[in-house]
Automatic annotation (TrEMBL):
Catalytic activity: L-proline + NADP(+) = (S)-1-pyrroline-5-carboxylate + NADPH + 2 H(+); L-proline + NAD(+) = (S)-1-pyrroline-5-carboxylate + NADH + 2 H(+)
A Pfam family this chain is assigned to: P5CR_dimer
Pathway field: Amino-acid biosynthesis; L-proline biosynthesis; L-proline from L-glutamate 5-semialdehyde: step 1/1
Superkingdom of source: Bacteria
Residue stretches making up the Pyrroline-5-carboxylate reductase dimerisation domain: 163-267
General function of this protein: Catalyzes the reduction of 1-pyrroline-5-carboxylate (PCA) to L-proline.
UniProt name for this protein: Pyrroline-5-carboxylate reductase
Similarity annotation: Belongs to the pyrroline-5-carboxylate reductase family.
Key words of the record: Amino-acid biosynthesis, Cytoplasm, NADP, Oxidoreductase, Proline biosynthesis
InterPro entries: 6-PGluconate_DH-like_C_sf, NAD(P)-bd_dom_sf, P5C_Rdtase_cat_N, P5CR_dimer, Pyrroline-COOH_reductase
An annotated GO cellular component: cytoplasm
Binding positions (NADP(+)): I10, G11, G12, G13, A14, M15
EC number: 1.5.1.2
Amino acid sequence: MLLNKTIGFIGGGAMAEALIRGILKSGMIEASQLIVNDISSERLRYLTNLFSVETTSDSQELAKKADVLFLTVKPQVMNHVVDQITPVVSKSTIIVSVAAGVTLSTLQNKMPGVPVVRVMPNTAVAVGEGMSAIALGKYATSSIGEMVSSVFASVGKVVTVGEDLMDAVTGLSGSGPGYVYVLIDALTDAGVRVGFSRQTALLLSAQTLLGAAKMVLETGEHPAKLRDMVTSPGGTSITGIHVLEQKGVRAALIDAVVAATERSKEMGRK
Ligand SMILES: NC(=O)C1=CN([C@@H]2O[C@H](COP(=O)(O)OP(=O)(O)OC[C@H]3O[C@@H](n4cnc5c(N)ncnc54)[C@H](O)[C@@H]3O)[C@@H](O)[C@H]2O)C=CC1
Ligand SMILES: O=C(O)[C@@H]1CCC=N1
């Protein structure tokens, strides 16, 4: 579907880099199909060295060439970027925005008739384990939706959601790797505290999170049932879980997702 198509990225930051790394690794798209635009020539040099992709400092030139155009800039500069490209974007260009809080209607109002798809991925697309949610704008046909989904499916899992849930996705899986890195870092400190080298403690922590997550996904069991399998009566796991409950870890995680969801909504109002 994407054979011989030109794929553009406006904004060559962390998210674009993660996506490019993942899609090149998946083999779905070749480096020769990609063109990246950024205001930072340093970022462009870095991405060319890393991925051998073409780059340009001219977003209009890129918008004219691209069949699929990823908008991977910060929400705060999205208006400026869209105003720049609107005069040259054709109705056959597929626009894919990954910006937190930027709504389909904002983009559609600026680019009438142009198919727009809103996606909220996370940085784990870089290693083929991303979680992305997708919502289609009114000019995006279902075949466009399938095409964009297939790109994100090549680098992880994809769900289709109503746009009203996009801020919630941003608060949970979009921002979620950040929360999990905090957990891994804390568990690693804990490992050092009980006697491991940092390197060993990091391996024990990260592999434990990976294994537990895989158990949930592969068994389809409720996490509480899997937790029961770990907690021997009067044993160590229930002793540790008791402390986590006393410290309010569960409520802290819920509060974190709610706060990030609210922040995404707030960013969308600007
Ligand atoms: N980093 C993440 O985990 C995720 C980010 N996102 C979304 O991806 C978007 C990008 O985020 P990051 O990559 O983290 O930010 P970033 O700050 O790493 O990258 C943004 C890039 O855009 C460039 N830029 C700024 N103004 C520009 C302009 N006028 N034209 C062209 N390029 C310009 C910057 O030089 C920078 O390289 C945001 O909208 C964010 O909401 C979505 C999901 C996850
Ligand atoms: O922190 C942010 O705003 C972006 C959106 C989702 C993850 N990172």
